[in-house]
Amino acid sequence: MTVQDMYLKLKDKLRDVVPDAELRIKAELANEINRLKTERNAVILGHNYMEPALYYSICDFTGDSLELSRKAAETDKDIIIFCGVRFMAETAKILNPDKVVLLPSEKAGCSLAASITAEDVRNLKARYPGVPVVSYVNTYADVKAESDVCCTSSNAAAVVNSFGSDKVIFLPDEFLARNVAAETGKRIIFPMKDEENFEENYQLIGWRGRCEVHEKFTVEDIDNVRKQFPDVVILAHPECSPEVVQASDFSGSTTAMIRYVEETKAPRYLLLTECAMGDNVAAANPDKEMLRLCSIRCPHMNQITLEDTLEALRRTQYVIEVPEDIRLKAARAVERMISIG
Ligand code: 13P
Ligand code: SF4
After folding, report:
1. How would DSSP label each residue in 38-99?
2. pLDDT, tens digit, for every residue of 134-166?
3. Which fold has domain 3-110+301-315?
4. Which of 49, 83, 273, 334 gets mutated to test ligand 1 (max ligand atoms within 8 A of its CB)?
5. Which of ligand 1's atoms lies nearest the C-alpha of 273?
6. Mean pLDDT over all residues of the chain?
7. Is 214-291 CATH 3.40.50.300?
8. 15 partner at 20 to 30 Å CA-CA among 159, 200, 208, 299?
């Protein structure tokens, strides 16, 4: 494909979303990335939160955390470039250790993954001996290694229900845990550090991690939008508070939200999730009206640019490594998650 062809392809998709001058520059970068990608036998996995020009130009596969984990496990390419955040690239390395896994920016972290350490998990296991540990995939490899199974937003309730046990530790997202508790009819507690736990009759033990993006949406936001547009359909990611999820019409993973918009015919939609995804969904559904409540970009996903992805390919950076003893234990938890689906 020539640069002009790439420009026209992007223009066709993104004329209402990205300014023309920017599209011309990005078309050039994207073409060079695609050329090098072939030369180096690499695959590019792009999370649904990638900015529109990147999302629609260089990704071999796009998707939510679960879908991209599957693609990472299956690929036979030499290099996996993860256009997402560090915990996602680590998951790719955990599942496919013989590949070189690259994350284009060293700064692409995640507030949820940063909210808990492996030592925190060991302390919880000592406090609740024998209780199985479910960790959200938004955690680092050493936390996964201390867990029995991982989950993503698309299979969290199924994973919790897969245990016969009457109690489950669910880490680290407070809101996802409370949403899963509501969905599965379980009572949840959040034990305080170094304090006796006098609560009884609980089935889920949570942790107070938060997604710094999704915690910002409020029921007041929803009420204001509904007042103005009574026929709007509101979709919320399960990392939003239970109150926000309850006030919405649908809640699901990033891909579940994309499918919902594709498969339904509402007068207008509002997505309560990371901003760039609203642009990507709007571009894919030009016949549907997407409202924007869009001041919230994930500062970590936002680090991944076409410029950095090109440098990642040119310089083979930043290589993701996971120590083998941790990787083996983490792989058990992630593979178990994938088998639950
Ligand atoms: P998904 O698994 O729904 O793609 O979510 C990942 C994420 O980081 C949401 O903030
Ligand atoms: Fe982490 Fe939230 Fe960003 Fe997703 S949106 S990567 S959960 S900080």
Report:
1. HHTTEEEEEETTS-HHHHTTT-SEEE-HHHHHHHHHH--SSEEEEES-HHHHHHHHHH-TTS
2. 999 999 999 999 999 999 998 999 999 998 888
3. Rossmann fold (3.40.50)
4. 49
5. 10
6. 95
7. no
8. 299
